Amino acid sequence: MNDHMFVETLIISSTFFTIAMILVASVMFLERHD
């Protein structure tokens, strides 16, 4: 088993998910204050 590959993929996916959540939160914040 190559655990390093799994950990790297998990980090990349979690980072992408975090960026997506920040974008959604910022869009909702801007629309609410528009």
3D structure, described in words:
With 34 residues, this protein is mostly helical. It is built from 1 helix and no strands. It is a single-pass membrane protein. It is found in: Membrane.
Main attributes?
34 residues, 1 helix, single chain, mainly alpha
Give the topology, please.
Blueprint: H1 3-32
Distance between the termini: 51 Å
Number of contiguous helices: 1
Give the biggest sheet.
none
Radius of gyration, in Å, reads 15 Å
Question: What's the pLDDT, averaged over the residues?
Answer: 93
In short:
Keywords: Membrane, Transmembrane, Transmembrane helix. By secondary structure, the chain is mainly alpha-helical.
